Amino acid sequence: MGWIALSVLVLVSEAQAQEVCLSAEEDPYLLFGTKTAYNFAHTAGISTTRIQDVIGCSPIAFWSLNRHGSHNPELNEINELQRLQDLRDNIIANYKNGNFRNTNQRMCTSDVNLLERWQWSARHTAASAGELTSEGYVTAQNLAQAWRQRYPGLLTDNRHDYLFKYLNDRRSTSSFRAYTEGLFRAQAQDQDIPNASDEKLLTPYKFCPAWTKDVEQNNETTSYQLIFESKQEYRDMINNISLRLGFNYEIDKESIKRMYQMCRYNKAWDIAQISPWCAAFTKSDLQRLEYAEDLETYYKYGYGSPINQKLGCGLVKDMFDFFQHQIESGDIPQQPRAKIYFTDAPTLLLTLTSLGAHRQVTPLTGDNYRTQVQQRKWVTSTVAPYNANLAAVLYKCDPNSNYQIQEKYQVLFLENEQQMVLDNCRVGLCDWSLVKQKYGNTSSCDMQFCNAANSLNSLFGISLALLSLVVRYISV
Hints:
Elements: H1 2-16, E1 19-20, H2 38-41, E2 57-67, H3 75-82, H4 84-97, E3 106-107, H5 109-117, H6 134-150, E4 162-166, H7 170-184, H8 188-191, E5 195-197, H9 199-202, H10 209-216, H11 223-230, H12 232-244, H13 253-269, H14 283-300, H15 307-311, H16 313-328, E6 338-343, H17 345-355, H18 369-372, H19 380-383, E7 389-397, E8 409-415, E9 418-419, E10 429-431, H20 432-439, H21 452-475
Helix pairs in contact: 6-7, 11-14, 16-17
């Protein structure tokens, strides 16, 4: 009996000390919110095959909004992420000293060795902060080549057929250069391609005091995220990660987020490389961290704040007006035939919200993670990864050639190269009358609401000044 009991004890101890190699999983979880590599979000990979031809129709105009590719850490992140070196040293010390409570969640030896060899890269300095990585640059080139192969008669070598707009920052300008190299097989400056920087169109939230006050600086915007992070399932995640790393106490939430940031940066910079920091997280851990970011973006840039649908109006208006001009011109070819823009994740999400894409029947909250983890439509990992793209293609059709098409003009909406799901459209293909009905009212796109708060504040200030003068006059 004693021998049997000892054997059982040994087996239990071995099970409790089971090592798991999370960094080398055969089917790892690779969806990391807005810092997801395009190849992970777009599982089919960048396709060079034609978008399914619309029978009886010819493409006559192309409009596209593109997010920049993966980039180096921001300037305000560098010092924070460098602190991971001290955390790494503590984790290695835990493993060398055997500081473990009873747990079967230990990292495997190869994961520990990978983490021990990890060093902060000397190339991540203030001078290179925010710059596009080589992975982000090449992906932008490949996307441009893919679009050209799909629409060879529309995306031609004629530079006058294009108008490019981008943000005046390193990421957007580099994405613009990469895209034009892929499109024309030459650098943009050598082609004298029409282009311009347009901050107001491409980052409308930066020019909207009402949004800054009511959304960005409003504590209510992050309240559901904070509620979720206070839930037992999120606290269990922190406890499990702490155990896995050998700590006899719960490490702070900010350290968890720094590890997660480094994990997802690593996987975006080199999609084939194993990240030592990803070994800290199980699939369920990563899903919780992903959901926490979805809660933030849903209220900051999505349907959680009503002002966001108005704020995304500008680019929808730009698309609509561009196509309207092409249609009104009839058979007279118009230039440009393609408008291609480069922006950031917030603007892309605001635009999708204005279009009505990924609308939740049940809003995301801090209390409904269990029901939303597999069902939600608002998933930033697949909607707004690095190099995310939204495209709309205007087609001119002969209704007699396709019994499904009743109107002369159709618009095909594509998101990350796939047909979008939009109400009352046929797998992304929408009648122009429907597009006009849904988005035609954006032709005015009144953004006066953005300055309403400032106007009220100014009026209040003037009123106070007048009241002060009246009081002084009466006093005299």
